[in-house]
Amino acid sequence: MQADDFDSRIAGLAAQPEPLVGGQTHVRNVGDHYAVVVNPAVNSSDDMRHAFLHFLLDPLVIRYREQLLPQEPLFRAALRAPRLPESLRRDSLALFTECLVQAAELRLRRLPAARLAGEVDRAEGDGLVLVRPLMAALAKFEAAEPAMGFYYPDLLRSMDVYAEQLRLQTIRFAPASDLPVAAAARPATPSSELDQSLADGDRLTAARDAARAAAAYERALSIAPGDPRALYGFAVASVLLGQGERAYDLFTQVVSAESGADPATRPDPVTLAWAHVYLGRMHDLAGEREQALAEYRGALAVAGAPEAAREAAQRGVEQAYQPAVRNPSPG
User: Fold this and answer.
1) Spatial CA neighbour of 213 closest among 234, 232, 231, 229
2) Has residue 179 been placed in a domain?
3) Which domain, by its residues, includes 289?
4) Looking at the domain assignment, is residue 253 inside a domain?
5) Residues 150, 9: one domain?
6) pLDDT band at 118 (very low <50, low <70, confident <90, very high)
């Protein structure tokens, strides 16, 4: 959908506002019937656009719900976000639709790169973990411009669930707060060159630009040698690049830093637990079961380890790791 085309279609709705709704916008849908009630004194175009996109995209999510089953691990990752609305916690289809709508909105708004990156970070901080990969998929859609009904299965197949799981395992969601969502979830401006390098690495990893992500993490390590966040990020980028030996060495450095003398270079529980898990999986793939078990048990022993890492480690103890079948690349 082109922005100009959308703007012309939404203009007709804006001409018929309801004068008795105060300063609010109300959206209701029953089945395939949608109603938007707005105040003419308030600029409600963003809310109307949001409702209109739901009107267009909700039926597609329902139609292809069986193909959304591989995305369930990403839904479980979103449940860790304190700010994720309760309505989205109860319904993985609703979460996917909201992420798709917000990704489409961000594409339509044509924001400057820096502001766009901030908006994507804000959405992800709120738990809308699929906005980032869906924006990349929508960019391909805009280049091809088929009808969305035809492109939608390709959009689903284009998402690399394995890579997204890897990325989301150490994401730090915005904390719960009584402040308005837009203000509280907005990430802080990086306070140093190190933070900026780490943020660049995370962003590039999310965009599956593993080579540039690795370079960003290397830059972070040149600023702060031994920083566990940079080591872990570099390891993840190396996995995506297929550089197993380097990934193994980097994950090992993360684990070794647990007993370091400098508290600043000790990994946090999330990073440490997942580093153990991935070392265990690498040993399993190499047929080294005893070493794998030692790593899984190491993850289980980490105080404060996230539940997802503990579950992954427990599965590794019970059965040797077998990699999941990854989604085929779109043709």
Assistant:
1) 234
2) no
3) 194-318
4) yes
5) yes
6) confident
Number of domains in the chain: 2
pLDDT at 7 over 50: no
The CATH number given to whatever domain includes residue 236 is 1.25.40.10
Asked if 320 and 292 touch (Cβ cutoff 8 Å), the reply is yes
CA proximity to 77, closest of 31, 128, 117: 128
pLDDT tens, position by position, 174-185: 886 533 433 333
One domain for residues 102 and 236: no
Q: Within this chain, do residues 23 and 154 fall inside the same structural domain, yes or no?
A: yes
pTM (2 d.p.): 0.49
Structure tokens at 224: 């702060």
Q: In this structure, are 81 and 139 located in the same domain?
A: yes
Tell me the pLDDT tens digit for each residue of 260-280: 656 667 888 888 998 999 999
Cβ(233)–Cβ(172) under 8 Å?
no
- Give the C-alpha separation, 294 to 325, whole Å: 26
Is residue 49 a part of any domain in this protein?
yes
Quick one: 164 and 52 in the same domain?
yes
Q: How many residues does the chain have?
A: 331
Q: Are residues 253 and 154 in the same domain?
A: no
| Closest alpha carbon to 231 in 261, 206, 268, 203 | 268
At 214, is the pLDDT very low, low, confident or very high (cuts 50, 70, 90)? very high
